[in-house]
Structures are given as C-alpha cells and as structure tokens.
Design a protein that fits this description.
heterodimer; A: about 170 residues; mainly beta; 5-stranded antiparallel sheet; 3-stranded antiparallel sheet; 2 helices; about 10% helix; B: about 400 residues; alpha/beta; Peroxisomal Thiolase, Chain A, domain 1; two-stranded antiparallel ribbon; about 35% helix
C-alpha cells in the first residue's frame, strides 16, 4: 500500500489562529414552495385533518401525498383522509439537537405509520407524554396532539406531537 | 463481456485520514492522485479522462466544488466530470470511471475522491440537515444521526438483535485499523466500552459511529491492453452495480436495504457470481455506523437477512475468518471523509488482491473482493466487484 503523509493539525490550533484560516457565514435565505400535493396536505392540517393521495393502479393510499405514483409512474387519482392515529414503526431517543449540541432532556422522534394509509406508510414526527423514554416501544399506538386551531399555520408542526394511546 | 473494453485498476493511493488536515481539498486531491499515478507508473500525460467524487458542497461552503477541485485532481485540459450520490459517492466514482474506459472512449481514467469536513462549524452534522425535506421534515428539528438511529432500531427490532452483537463490529474494525497507517481512530476497545459510551440518539452511542474526517483517495483505471503493458498485477473491475430507492423514507421498511441488494445483483450478474458467500473472498461493506456493516452484508447477499450478527459473533468476519469484512479498519477505524472513505475501501480490496496489504493482509490468496457504499436518505447503493 502507498499513502501520502498529510499534515494533521489540532482543532484548537485552528481556533486560536495558529493555522491561517479565513471565516465566512453565508447570508442566503430560502423560501420553498410546498408544491401541488403538499400545499393541500398543509391546508388540511390547518383543519385538523391528514390527507393522502391514492393510486388506482397499485391501490396505494400514499402519505405524505404526491401528485404521481412513483411506482406506477402515473398521476395519483384521488384524495383520501387518513386517521390521526397510528403505530410507531421505529423511533429514536435523541440527546442531540439539529446542530449536534447536547440536550439535557432527550426528545423522542418516530416514524409513525398512519391508520388508513397503506401498510408501512407514514410520517416522521415527535413523540411526547411518554413518561420514561425507556417505555417507548416499536408497535406502540399513538395519536396526534393538535395545536389549537387559532395557532395553526398550515405546517407539519400544526400537529404539536404524537402521544401514546394508553389502553 | 460487458462494455467494449475490460477495465483494470493499476494504481491506488490515499492520504492520511484525520479530523483536521492542513491541506486544502485541492492539495489532498493532488497528493492522492499523484500517489496513485506513481504506483501505476504513469504520468498525467498518460491519463485520458478524470472523474472526481466529493460529497455535499455545504461542508466546504464552496459551490461548484467539482470545478474547484479539478486541477488538484489532474483534470487540467482533460475530459472531466464530478459525480455525487451522497455517501455512495466513493464507490460510485470508480463505477463512473469504469464506463469511461469500458465504453472504449478512453484508455485510461484517473478517479479521485476527496472530502474535507473540518471546514464546517460548529459541526458538519448541521450542514447535513439540509438533506431533509424542507417542508415536512426540517421543521421537526431533524439531526442527521436520527436517520441512523431510526434504521438501527428497526433492524434490531425486526431480527431481535442485541446491541452487544452490533458493538462487535466497532470493536473489530477499530482493531483492524491498528494496522492501517492512515487510520484516525484505531483502538483496542471492548464491547463494554461501546455500550458505556455516550448516548447520542438511542440506540446510537458514540462508539457506534465513525468520526468526521478530512482525506482523499485515488485509483488509476486502464483498459486491458494498457493495463497489461504497465503492470503484472492488474485488478479487474468485473462487476458494477448501483441503485436508488425513493426519498419517501418514511414509507418503507428500513430494516433491509433492498436498493443495495438491487445494486449487488447487478454487479454479481456481470461478474458471473451465483453464490456470493462462497465466491467472494473478502468484503468492504460501508460502515459509517457499526450496524451498517451488518445491514450491508445482508444487502450484499453475503448472508441471510438477520444473520450478519451471528457471523460476526462467530468470528467469520475477522481477518482470519472465512469472510473477512473491513480488513482496512473501515470507516469506524480509519475515519469517514465521505467520498474518500468509500474509495479507500476499493483501494483496500486492490491491495489485498495484490498481496500488498502488509500487516492487514488476509490469508488464503484472495481472488475476489467486493466493496460497497451507501448514501443519501437511506436510499442509495453502489457496489463494485474486483478480481485478480
């Protein structure tokens, strides 16, 4: 094997300016169109409902909705409400925020397969009111907790979080 | 034969992998490319085309990164392209090089992969969050580690896999890296060390994860006639495969990477491999997290679904086992300069098949090896089969 003996340096030497560096923070901002399917989805969230699109060829009830079926590669041909309850497909208990800083209290995030959608289809969202995080389990039934109507903005966060349904 | 020309790797070179390297991306590209050319015994004038692989521009804050890196990669006044398929880039880049030569258009192709993650503050994980859907996912506060944690938990649940068995991968790869002079995180650790390390996003703990790194790697590809002129030890690219799944990652079962299986089947068909565990002597599955090596062994059809932890426990995947995996030390041991890490895996198979892996050399005169990388939103697989 042949390798080049590159020059390793310490992060602290960079931070202390011992290694010449130049710094830059981009000031770009973005505003994304939500598109045809997701704009309708967000409008429905504002009404406290979750909507899917359907494909008559493969029979899927697809959430998040799209205007085409990527498998059949044809237009989706209908809208259908699904329930705001579902099952935890998988989850994580995170001690990390988005920027990798540490959280004192962990947050739980899960993929939730929504009732009424095709098997295995769902969304990613937060879980709260679970008690001890060690009690969160795959297969647990959950229900959406909605923000009050006056606080909804037509965003995925109009669902504040999902909480376990105790039976 | 697939394509007009059979294609060989005739040279390979890597830089050190470290948390911070003083060199720029261009300089790292130059160091790796120059080393690979020297091994091949070729000069830049012998190179007819160049393919570059590098991950998201957001790490570097340099747009048009392919063009930025071009002269370091030896592309001055040559046909040149940069390819990018997320974490899958490092193995996809030599696949793109393969079609340059296999098409008959070019006799040679220099393949270079570079990554410099240290430029991004406070942590490159934050730049990574831009891979998530801006409308439906980013408002949830997504962290990159979450997708791995969600996938790992589903995999463990589906096959009832213990964290102890997954941790064995981290122990093995970091130990293998002790014999690799480029390695960033070589160490003798125990399963307990992994299980007692900081919880980042359950079930992912600190020692389940590869680090962020700077580094570069390069290989020189040549058509059969050129390869036989320049070396007695060409390593043939006998199989190539790549495949993508949907970005609707909340709509599929993450316990199994069927897009990797799709890519592997494409590569095995081309290589005429019918029984992968029997016909493949060593593998470098993509291991940015310890469970990913297991996940990818299964996707590569090296064992049955859910069986990879058992093979690991039984020592089958150790360097002296029947199917050594990540003899290089992998990403867990060597570091993870994303595109460069994937190409390093291809370099390792090259060295192993030529008997040039030094202290890492696996016994038994290996003839066939497979390297694989993975990326994007848990959706991309790239696979290469090499033979001596």
């Amino acid at each position: 094997m042949r390798y080049y003996q590159s020059e390793a340096v310490e992060t602290k030497d960079i931070k202390e300016g011992k290694i010449p560096t130049e710094k830059f923070r981009p000031k770009a901002k973005f505003a994304w169109s939500a598109g045809i399917a997701i704009s309708r989805f967000l409008e429905e969230l504002k009404n406290g409902k979750i909507i899917a699109t359907t494909c008559s060829k493969c029979g899927r009830i697809m959430v998040p909705p799209r205007i085409y079926c990527e498998k059949c590669f044809k237009p989706a041909d209908g809208w259908k409400y699904v329930k705001d309850t579902g099952v935890i497909n998988t989850f994580s208990v995170s001690f990390l925020a988005a920027d990798a800083s540490r959280l004192k209290e962990p947050i739980v995030v899960a993929i939730i397969n929504l009732d009424g959608a095709s098997e295995g289809m769902g969304i990613v969202h937060r879980i709260e009111e679970y008690g001890d995080w060690r009690e969160v389990k795959i297969g647990m039934k959950v229900k959406a907790v909605w923000k009050p109507p006056e606080e909804r903005t037509g965003a995925i966060t109009d669902i504040a979080y999902f909480k376990p349904i105790r039976e | 034969m697939f394509g007009k020309k059979r294609v060989a790797i005739v040279g390979a070179g890597v830089t050190l992998f470290r948390r911070n390297l003083k060199e720029t991306g261009k300089e790292l590209s130059y160091e790796a490319a120059k080393t690979a050319l020297e091994v091949a015994g070729l000069e830049l004038r012998d190179i007819k085309s160049v393919v570059m692989g590098s991950a998201p521009d957001a790490f570097d804050g340099v747009h048009m990164k392919g063009e930025y890196l071009a002269d370091g990669a030896g592309a001055y006044h040559k046909p040149y392209t940069r390819v990018f398929v997320g974490g899958g880039t490092g193995v996809f880049t030599p696949l793109a090089g393969w079609w340059h030569v296999a098409s008959g258009q070019f006799d040679t192709c220099l393949v270079v992969c570079e990554e410099k993650m240290s430029s991004c503050y406070p942590h490159p994980q934050y730049a990574f969050t831009t891979i998530f859907d801006p409308i439906l996912e980013r408002p949830i506060g997504m962290n990159l580690i979450w997708i791995f944690a969600l996938e790992m938990n589903r995999y463990m649940h589906k096959h009832n896999i213990k964290k102890e068995d997954i941790a064995l991968v981290s122990v093995k790869n970091k130990r293998n890296a002790l014999d690799n002079p480029i390695a960033q995180l070589a160490a003798n650790i125990t399963v307990e060390d992994v299980l007692n390390s900081e919880i980042m996003a359950w079930p992912v703990q600190r020692l389940d994860v590869s680090p962020t790194s700077d580094g570069a790697a390069a290989v020189v590809l040549a058509s059969e006639d050129v390869a036989k002129e320049v070396t007695d030890n060409p390593v043939w690219i006998d199989g190539v495969g790549w495949c993508i799944d949907s970005t609707h990652w909340t709509d599929r079962d993450l316990y199994y990477p069927d897009y990797v299986e799709c890519a592997a089947k494409m590569a095995y068909k081309m290589a005429g491999i019918k029984n992968p565990p029997k016909e493949i002597d060593l593998a470098e599955p993509y291991d940015p997290f310890d469970y990913k090596e297991l996940h990818h062994m299964e996707g590569l059809l090296l064992c049955k679904k859910g069986e990879a932890p058992k093979l690991t426990r039984e020592g089958v995947t150790q360097r002296d086992g029947d199917l050594p995996t990540c003899p290089s030390g992998g990403l867990l041991g060597c570091g993870n300069p994303i595109a460069a890490a994937g190409l390093m895996k291809v370099c390792e198979i090259f060295w192993q098949l030529r008997g040039e892996a030094g202290k890492r050399q696996i016994p038994g005169d290996p003839r066939t090896g497979v390297a694989q990388a993975w990326g994007d939103l848990m959706q991309y697989g790239s696979v290469i089969v090499l033979r001596r």
